[in-house]
Amino acid sequence: MSIPSLQALGQEAQSLATGKIIPILPAATETAAETEVARTLQICNACRYCEGFCAVFPAMTRRLEFGKADVHYLANLCHNCGACLHACQYAPPHEFGINIPQAMATVRGQTYADYAWPPALGRLYQKNGLTLSLALAAGLFLFLALAVALRGGEARLWSGELGNNFYHLFPHNLLVGIFAPVFLFVVFALFMGVRRFWKDVKPATSGVDVSAPAAAEATQDVLRLKYLDGGHGEGCHNEDDEYTLKRRRFHHLTFYGFLLCFAATALGTVYHYAFGWAAPYELPSLPKVLGALGGLGLMAGTAGLWHLNRSRHPLHGDARQKPMDLGFIALLFLVAASGMALWLGRATPALALLLCLHLGAVIALFATLPYGKFAHGVFRTAALLRHNTEKRQPSPIGLGAD
Ligand code: SF4
Ligand code: SF4
């Protein structure tokens, strides 16, 4: 059966069900990747075997055609669990060649670049890879080490006289002067990017504002990484047909590890400015407990994600984005490992070098955040908010509503 005849079949079924003729001419899409998603979803819409796997399929059944905004929305709603590839009777080598995870991943990568702010920096997504991330961290480490050496002589780089106080090397106000502008730029750039995405997908997802129940359910979906459970709780796929919960668990370790580290830094800022309690903090202070737990979680999570990424089935994703994925994972691991090493080596002569390594990794991570894999969390959260809003509205085609 040819693809056009499947589409015609879908049209006939919809027409019969609703009692009217519904045009299903392909909606305007622009790139080959977007057209491929629209093509595959037309076939899925006639098949619907994978309806219970994730949020994408119920959202798909609310549509008869897939325009650019629909494709961008659905691509970011997909969690790349791989379930619909392994279940699909039309997957390669079938002539239909249905590979939803790969088609969605390709469009997702494109949306990060298309919605990037400022737009001219969108092409950095293609260049943001493992080599660049590590080279940036190494360059910053050398730069900071050089700055320390020039300020205090080589002896300062390897000195047991610094005690446990790294503000002797980099004064607090200097660190704030470096990190505050970078952090604010990252937040602003990500906000502007996701704002443009939101403006495009909102009209295509009912146009209704997000309600409190929709926001609460979307938050739960994000915090639980619900759609990495394969729809049945046994997990998703990685290298083969076997279900595994490893991807969900390592994502959780990474996600919550990152949040705990961020909370430790935020709390340290409150301690400094509100109470005048200067770092470094020691156990059992709350910033140190949060930082230690977060660091361990980040290290375990990113090590696991690295291994899973390297062994991932090649049909699951867009191979061109692998360097970007690995670059982000490597920087997160480096930040966590150097932070833990700094803590353990705080009373040794290696303090200055460990501090330069940690600061270099943190600055490199933040500098690449708006143009790297971090974007997937932001865009997917926005898509889940739209999904939980849209599904509370009546189906626009009167069929297949949740
Ligand atoms: S991925 Fe394959 S099996 Fe699943 S709904 Fe689409 S066409 Fe059907
Ligand atoms: S890869 Fe997983 S999350 Fe993505 S559409 Fe398929 S089943 Fe849904």
Order of helices and strands: HHHHHHHHHHHHHHH
Specify Rg, calculated over alpha carbons: 24 Å
- Strand content is under 5%
Bound molecules: iron/sulfur cluster
Low-confidence stretches: 1-5, 21-25
How far is it from the N-terminal to the C-terminal residue, by CA? Answer: 30 Å
Average pLDDT, all residues:
90
Shape: elongated
Q: Report the strand count.
A: 0
Helix content: 55-70%
Structural class based on helices, strands and sheet pairing: mainly alpha
Number of helices: 15
For the report, how would you describe the main beta sheet? Answer: none
Oligomeric assembly: single chain
Summarize this structure briefly.
Helix content is 62%, strand content 0%. With 402 residues, the chain is mostly helical.
Observed structural traits:
mainly alpha, elongated, 402 residues
Describe the structure.
The protein is an all-alpha fold. The protein has helices spanning 3-18, 32-47, 56-60, 68-77, 83-86, 100-114, 124-127, 130-152, 172-201, 212-224, 246-275, 286-310, 322-344, 351-368, 375-390. It has a domain at 126-212 and 222-373. It has 15 helices and no strands. Helix 13 packs antiparallel against helix 14 (351-368). The longest helix is centred in the middle third of the chain and has 30 residues, at 172-201. The chain is elongated. Residues 1-5 and 21-25 have low confidence and may be disordered. The structure holds iron/sulfur cluster (2 copies). One iron/sulfur cluster is lined by residues 50, 53-54, 56, 78-84, 100-101, 104, 227. One iron/sulfur cluster binds next to helix 2. Keywords: Membrane, Transmembrane, Transmembrane helix. InterPro entries: Citrate_utilization_prot_B, NarG-like_sf.
